[in-house]
Design a protein that fits this description.
The protein has helices spanning about 5-15, 25-40, 45-60, 70-85, 110-125, 145-155, 165-180, 200-210, 225-240, 255-265, 285-295, 300-310, 310-325, 330-340, 345-350, 355-360, 370-375, 380-385, 390-400, 405-430, 430-440; strands at about 100-105, 130-135, 160, 185-190, 215-220, 245, 270-275, 280-285. By secondary structure, the protein is of the alpha/beta class. It has an 8-stranded mixed sheet with strand order 3-2-4-1-5-6-7-8, with helices on both faces. The longest helix has 23 residues, at about 405-430.
Length: about 450
């Protein structure tokens, strides 16, 4: 995401490279390119103009320290202003209530129904909530069925009234149903249209009035750019929603909606959808997004994703095995499965500072582990537990069984052996011993 904007901003900062100090002339030249970059990213014109004016005022008021180059200072100012433009800090969702009610709004095709399922899944697994999904879209063919399928996948019940075509009554009845059956969270999926119309706005206003939700979220496709911002503005005038959800952010290389929407409607972006899977949902962190736009990575989010898959007891067991040099292919296979659960591999790699730019043109397939998994699965239990016994004839059999070559099997075995040595070295303090030896040898 934001690839084009990141490139353009990087080029604009190069104007200051080699300059001894910040001057009105070089700042003006840099910010002219920054404004162009923002406009090309489909950022609202007024937002882009105000942004560059603020950055200029702050840049001209800065005394550049001897240890800091002018372009570094400008990157810092732009980073901080980008974070402020997108809201400054993450905005919490209000789920206090008995039950708490969340109302979804937006146009047809924005991803409301899928997001309702993702949000229910997230609040159930991470916040311990007991959600109920409500099918209040009575117009779109298969909308109710889609929500039921999602509910089944995440183990959340769906409230629907097949014969009732009054979404206001359905929503009101659903909240009462939640109270009766001890559900502490209600997420109402509503109908959308291909364009804003009076009937749709009247209907969702009536639903909001009937259920008095703790949160009204406006869901919009990030890839629609300025159209997303304009639609948000119209919805907000009628609904006064509490926050924005940007879906399909993983496919948005420009970023105009994410950068403009807060300043136009003065409502926070609360969540972003980053893929098709039901766990592809993130709380929106403006500072982390500014880091990613400026090519600084997002280590905090990467660590959080890793911690979600982290099992303390399993980690202790693994540490003991590594220390005794007993790490085997069973353990290796388990680790691969945990990495896969963390999400899209290219997105994960781009969170590492400096890596995003290097891999932007690479096609990193989510099936990158497929060959390795096939090789491991073609090993016998004895071979997985004792890799040392894998001789030439065993390698040939494993290659044939996995649909790979002997060379690929050899490569994996070599990499595995090197990984095991390095892991043992780090676990047992061997790294410190090696450093002491190196110092003595100098």
């Amino acid at each position: 995401m934001f690839d084009n904007l990141s490139e353009r901003l990087e080029r604009s900062f190069k104007i200051l490279k080699g300059q001894g100090r910040i001057t009105e002339i070089n700042v003006a030249e840099t910010l002219k390119e920054v404004r162009r970059a923002l406009l090309d990213a489909d950022v609202n014109y007024k937002t882009a103009k105000e942004f560059t004016e603020t950055v200029k005022a702050k840049a001209m008021g800065q005394d550049v320290l001897n240890a800091v180059r002018p372009e570094q200072m400008m990157v810092k100012i732009v980073h901080d202003e980008l974070a402020l433009l997108m809201g400054g800090t993450a905005s919490e969702i209000n789920i206090k209530g008995s039950p708490a009610v969340i109302l979804m709004s937006g146009l047809q095709g924005s991803g409301k129904t899928t997001f309702a399922g993702k949000l229910a899944n997230m609040l159930k697994s991470k916040r311990g909530k007991n959600p109920l999904l409500v099918a209040a879209d009575v117009y779109r063919p298969a909308a109710i069925e889609q929500l039921k399928v999602l509910g089944e996948q995440i183990g959340v019940p769906v409230y629907a009234e097949e014969e009732n075509k009054d979404p206001v009554k359905i929503a009101r009845n659903a909240v009462q149903h939640a109270r009766t059956y001890g559900r502490d969270l209600v997420i109402i999926d509503t109908a959308g249209r291909l364009a804003i119309d009076e009937e749709m706005m009247n209907e969702i206003e009536s639903i909001k009035k009937a259920v008095n939700p703790q949160e009204t979220l406006f869901v919009v496709d990030a890839m629609t750019g300025q159209d997303a911002v304009n639609t948000a503005k119209e919805f907000n005038q009628r609904l006064d929603f509490d926050g924005v959800v940007l879906t399909k952010l993983d496919g948005d290389t420009r970023g105009g909606a994410a950068l403009s929407i807060r300043s136009v409607v003065n409502k926070p972006i609360k969540f972003v959808g980053t893929g098709e899977k039901l766990d592809a949902i993130d709380v929106f962190h403006p500072e982390r997004m500014a880091d990613r736009i400026l090519g600084m990575g997002d280590i905090v989010s990467l660590v959080e994703k890793a911690q979600e898959q982290y099992d303390e007891e399993e980690a202790r067991r693994l540490q003991k095995k590594i220390a005794k040099n007993q790490f085997d292919f069973n353990d290796f296979y388990t680790q691969i499965q945990q990495v896969k659960k963390m999400g899209n591999l290219k997105d994960l790699a781009s969170m590492i500072p400096g890596v995003g730019k290097q891999i932007k043109d690479l096609d990193i397939d989510d099936d990158a582990f497929k060959g390795i998994e096939a090789i491991i699965r073609s090993m016998t239990p004895q071979e997985r537990g004792n890799p040392e016994i894998i001789n030439g004839s065993r390698r040939a059999r494993i290659a044939k069984g996995s649909g790979t070559t002997v060379q690929e099997v050899n490569k994996l075995l070599k990499q595995f052996d090197e990984t095991r040595k390095m892991m043992r070295m780090m676990t047992t303090g061997g790294a410190r011993q090696a450093m002491r030896k190196a110092r003595r040898g100098r």
